[in-house]
Fold this sequence. Notes:
- The complex is a heterotrimer of chains A (about 350), B (about 375) and C (about 260).
- Chain A is mainly alpha-helical and about 350 residues long.
- Chain A has helices spanning about 10-15, 30-35, 55-70, 80-105, 120-130, 130-165, 170-185, 185-195, 200-210, 220-245, 250-255, 260-290, 295-300, 305-315, 320-345, and strands spanning about 110, 115.
- Chain A folds into two domains: about 30-75, no CATH class; about 120-350, Orthogonal Bundle (MetI-like fold).
- In chain A, strands 1-2 form a two-stranded antiparallel ribbon.
- In chain A, strand 1 (about 110) and strand 2 form a beta hairpin.
- In chain A, helix 5 (about 120-130) packs across helix 15, helix 6 packs parallel to helix 10 (about 220-245) and helix 12 runs antiparallel to helix 15 (about 320-345).
- The two termini of chain A are about 30 Å apart.
- In chain B, strands 1, 2, 3, 4, 5, 6, 7, 8, 9 and 10 form a ten-stranded mixed beta sheet that branches.
- Chains in contact: A-B, A-C, B-C.
Amino acid sequence: MHVRTGGFPVLIMAVACLPAGTGPGQTLSTRHRNAAMPEIPSKDDTHTTFRYPLRWRIMDALNGGLDRFWPARMSPYTGWALIMPALLLVGVLVLGLFEMADNSLHTLDRATFRLSEAYTLENYQTVMESATYGRVITRSVFAAGLTVFFTLLLALPYAYIMVRTTSSAVRKALLVTLFLPFFIGQVVRAYGLLIILGTTGVANNALGLVGIEPMRLLFNFPAVVFGLVQYMLPFAVLMLAPALTAIPRETETAASSLGANWVQGFRHVVLPMAKPGLIGAGLVVGTLALTDFAMPAMLGGGSQDFIANAIYDQFFRTADQGLGAALALLLVVLGSVIVGIVISIFGAGTLGMGNRK
Amino acid sequence: MSTEFSRRGVLRAGLATSGAALLSAMPASRLLAQEPEKPSEIIVRAWGGEWVESLKNGVSDRFTEMTGIAVRHDLTEDNEIQPKVWAAVAQGRVPPIHINWDTTTNATKSALRGVTEDISDLDNLANTTDLAKPVGLEGYPLVNTYGYVYVLAYRPEAFPDGAPKSWRDLLDPKFKGRIALYNDGIGFHFPAQVAGGGSLEDIPDNMDACWDFVREMKEQNPLLGEDPDFTTWFQNGEIDAACTISTNALAAKKNGVDLAWTVPEEGCKFDTDCLWIPKGLPDNELYWAKQYINLALSQESQQIWLDGLGLPGVVPGLTPPEGLAGDPSYPTTPADFEHLIRISSAVQVQNESDWFARFKEIMQG
Amino acid sequence: MTARSQRILFWALVWFSVLILSVPTIIVVGASFTNANMISFPPEGFTLKWYEKIALARDLRQAFIRSLIVSTVCLVVSVPVGTLAGLALSRFKLRFVNAIQIYLLLPFTVPLIGSGIGMMLIFGEWRILGSLWPVGVALAVINLPFIIWSVSSSASALDGDLELAASSCGAGRFETFWFVTLPGVMPGVITGGLLMFVLAMSEFLVSLLLTDARTVTLPVQIYNNIRSIITPDLAAVSSVFVVIALLAVWVLDRLVGLEIFLKSK
């Protein structure tokens, strides 16, 4: 077994509290702990030069501080206190969204290239009436769905074997393979794919060996989805692995000893227990794919735009910040609605909705 | 190797005289008494690769040599720096760059928005041709520094009968999936208007002919990309022909890709790039930024800079780079311009969004 | 795993994954040795000149150092914030938890361009653009769900009775947190922290909008260079990254064991 640093103080405390003979559920002050170790003089004893270990004193001070600033009666709000920093940090993004929401209500004045003063919904109307945006939005959603499906299809066996293998070397090799691509940015990776899948690239050369004519593998919808799956796979595996680790091996053995073949065992034991991981991974992969920019830009050959590419064009090419902001907000709403539906049906999975207590 | 040598030769010869030229262009008293404090560096936005190399050789290095002010190049794309500069000016911050090397169309938007400094007091403007003057704008909110042609670049082995005569030649079924255009259609609209049977006078009011031809072209499944994509695609054998700026074709050729280019009978789009200074700089930095542009308009700098790009400049008396004299991508005489289409930036910026939307509508289908 | 058919099917899928995960890396590393002036594979000839070039490039080195600073800031901000949030989501009953989930996933549902533009405007108003630390904060924001998720998935698997036992033994609330809860979710914190750091090292779109020529970070520099012409020195930069990554993974393995990523408790 691997010993984690920081694991052993738990043991010490467990041992330390035994002589005190305190029953579970009984909350004690720090003073009681000292009583459990009679050989250590009391803090009040000013005649001795002994001082408590520095760590104890720090802990006492921290506990005291905590009790003072966050008394136990505040405990119903502890959860909120813990999550508040994250809410505030994401709040920076929300402030930006407010700014965009304001921009989206003004059209571009092409005589001054500033947004007009008047408030209007024209930008949203433009998006709604445009066949191009309709197609682009449909394509993004469809691609995100496909990406989630294929990524999970590949990630599940990968995570499963990584968790279940008895060989430490295999496990480490699989982990390293997973981590290395992270260190090469998305753009450079996409460039690697361009070289591999090009008409004169490695893949076509390999096909040529078995007598298949070179063909265009790039610059189409499947190429974009492939690039996305390649990009998302490590995330998905990392999200699935903890969920799979939590499934006791015995459960599966039990299933097979009861006569279930592996497909049944997998379907009725592993999949349901891995559900939180699958949902968490699906949410992350889906939202990232839905808003992706680089893969459609590099592997799509210019005719496979996603919403993010359309937003890019408005902000950076036609300088229409209002229309760009409107598109961005619509994408946020679309993504959030999909996330909301998934969560309300399946729960948030490993994204954390314990509600265990 | 020989071009490298000659470029250095020019640089050396140029430095000897141009220092004097810069000095003599300004009254001595102004220089001595009022020369504002020098910043340690100025930042010039530039395109990477061949583009920034030639700017460095022709202008930036000479500027540093003459003034002692270092030049830092910001390689952010021109259209990606735009919102950053606009936001800085709107919020009253110091802009992230001193000088923007920009397409004239893009710069015109910034000028219309009022975020550019007027630079009509530059001494070297007196020596420039008409090309330098922005069309449809008051004064000099920007100054054009050279022109370029969106040529039809092609791989000679894919065209055994010689250069394509017409843009319509690209509709040959054998080029299906083997043609590349800019992903915003830029450079292609105007020749398409002619190739589709329309007239240039109808731009921008009636561009049906253009859209008809773009629709025909869509049937060929063209690849859509940007400058670096074209180079990559040519190199990897993905495409046989592209509508692109001649400089990119030239760069690809220098890197060993077998490429040629031509101006088909319908013509090619001619446009300009420019330099401009964003508002909000401290006075002394503004002064030195202007001096940088002034130097970029000197004959010596133009010669070295544009040798690297292979493009015609805006001062008289430039020598065409080796092999480009008489080339359709290097127009100098009125006869050269006959087959080139130039539409004013004002018209372009007014209609760009609409053209863009139409082009996308056809291409994203 | 006993069934033969299962083994074959799973390993086939795993090999396919290994292939698509590693081939681009191999291609990029291989291309860094090419003699040609453009990236090509198989490489033409063999040269180390691109490595020499990047070793001498001061701007690349500075950009790399800036990236390290930015990623460190991102780490310092996101780890405490993400850990606390992960714990809050998994160990406490919160009202409106669905709404909070949707809110905390905003960094993923807002397209990066939107996040970048939005934060550029906000940071510009706050007059903090031009420093490096806001870039680190921004990257902490856009990748925050990763660390929240990895901590909360660790925390959900942690047995709540442990904490109860600790406090019943007289451990104060802070001690319980420090000695019981935190070590329990440490695998999640490490996984999340590593992800945050690595993703900050390779993010280019938001960084592009928040940096300028004096504060440009490595991924932005690579992105800008790729936009002009793709030369093999970029492949060399990526290869150096791969070597650094391998070293980091090796060190991590020696220090805490790679298996920590697979632990759920």
